[in-house]
Write a sequence for this structure.
């Protein structure tokens, strides 16, 4: 399993498993007048959000009422001191996904989920063990992708400023900038230090890339979904309907290096492939609060193979887990990221925001995505040399020169011949266990 902790998934895209942006709407006591209109007000506001919604009722074994008393007894001379106190308070939860966003970062988050932004086109995180800034994946057809940045590169400096010890949001803000300006990323790739000069551009993200692969087994509808943004649902529907009109024989859905995105997009897309069965369960601190079921709205029932890897996270895991548990598809690739927590994003009174983990996701069969990730039915590893080749020549991705895609074609052929889902051999089953 990967050691990444993707509480921010992008210098170009902050992608949450579930984004619910609301007004704070906290009905908390303000009997102590000194809290009002002071830096303490936002501290107390965050405390109440956590107290009401956080998934762990023990608050990581902290006496949460005592925490409130401690932080309200402190004096804060300005808003920045209050923000630092909020970060310290949230750190007690030991949850990288529950985080505070100052007004500018909160505004950036809303821009990020809109599908258009300015940057270089990378999704980044931090390594749990080393605290290094790690590239989860470059977004295809962006300046970073074209420059040669690849998954698992470590960003050690931005414009000469070391990233060691920096908050991830600060790294994101350094990489961002005006269109047409240059940023220099210093990268460590294995033991080699590389420097990339990249010109920032407006990144218009079209999450679905679709094409028909005509080969010996027939016409394959190949769909690569790069993230679950606001456009993903409509673009996916359009791609499937177009392929159905052309009477393709089967489908390969590529979720590799897809860091996730909006919850509703993963549910809507699952509906396009499933005519029944569960999609995902949401479990909060008092038990199951929601179970999404397929509503017989599938666009196609033709054979389907799904590609996943260690960069497939959150919404990607919801979709792939649902298709696997319902025996709708076989999965090929490597174990997914393992990010199955739900964040609700709250706007606070001063236009800052807080993302709070409110629940976790379970697949229809009850698997805890956050702990296990999704293990594919057929494990196909990519050697580092092959990954770099595919990165260098992206026209090979989703072709027979791509070993994971090649395996998917083989399995799709078996489905077309037998009418049944392929079953891993004993040795393949051992590899998956």
């Amino acid at each position: 399993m990967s050691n990444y902790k993707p509480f921010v998934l992008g210098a170009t895209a902050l992608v949450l498993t579930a984004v619910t942006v609301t007004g704070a709407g906290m009905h908390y006591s303000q009997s102590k007048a000194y809290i009002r209109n002071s830096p303490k007000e936002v501290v107390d506001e965050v405390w109440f959000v956590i107290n009401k919604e956080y998934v762990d009722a023990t608050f990581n074994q902290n006496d949460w009422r005592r925490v409130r008393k401690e932080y309200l007894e402190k004096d804060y001379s300005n808003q920045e001191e209050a923000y630092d106190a909020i970060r310290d308070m949230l750190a007690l939860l030991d949850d990288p996904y529950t985080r505070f966003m100052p007004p500018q970062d909160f505004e950036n988050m809303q821009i990020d989920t809109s599908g258009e932004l300015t940057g270089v086109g990378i999704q980044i995180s931090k390594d749990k063990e080393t605290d290094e800034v790690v590239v989860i994946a470059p977004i295809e057809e962006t300046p970073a992708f074209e420059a040669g940045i690849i998954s698992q590169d470590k960003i050690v400096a931005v414009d000469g400023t070391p990233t060691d010890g920096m908050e991830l949001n600060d790294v994101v803000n350094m990489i961002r900038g005006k269109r047409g300006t240059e940023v220099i990323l210093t990268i460590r790739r294995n033991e080699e230090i590389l420097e990339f000069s990249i010109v920032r551009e407006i990144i218009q993200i079209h999450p679905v890339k679709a094409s028909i692969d005509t080969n010996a087994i027939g016409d394959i509808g190949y769909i690569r979904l790069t993230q679950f943004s606001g456009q993903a649902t409509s673009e996916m529907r359009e791609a499937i309907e177009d392929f159905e009109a052309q009477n393709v024989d089967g489908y390969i859905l590529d979720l590799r290096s897809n860091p996730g995105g909006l919850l509703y997009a993963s549910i809507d897309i699952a509906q396009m492939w499933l005519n029944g069965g569960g999609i995902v369960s949401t479990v909060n601190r008092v038990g199951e609060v929601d179970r999404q079921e397929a509503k017989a709205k599938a666009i196609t029932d033709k054979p389907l193979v799904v590609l996943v890897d260690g960069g497939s996270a959150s919404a990607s895991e919801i979709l792939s887990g649902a298709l696997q548990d319902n025996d709708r598809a076989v999965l090929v690739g490597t174990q997914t990221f393992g990010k199955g927590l739900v964040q609700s994003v709250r706007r606070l009174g001063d236009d800052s925001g807080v993302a709070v983990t409110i629940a976790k996701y379970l697949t229809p069969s009850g698997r805890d995505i956050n702990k296990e990730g999704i293990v594919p039915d057929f494990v196909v590893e990519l050697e580092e040399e092959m990954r770099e080749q595919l990165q260098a020549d992206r026209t090979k991705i989703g072709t027979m020169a791509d070993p994971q895609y090649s395996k998917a074609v083989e399995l799709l052929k078996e489905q077309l011949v037998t009418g049944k889902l392929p079953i891993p051999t004993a040795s393949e089953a051992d590899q998956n266990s």
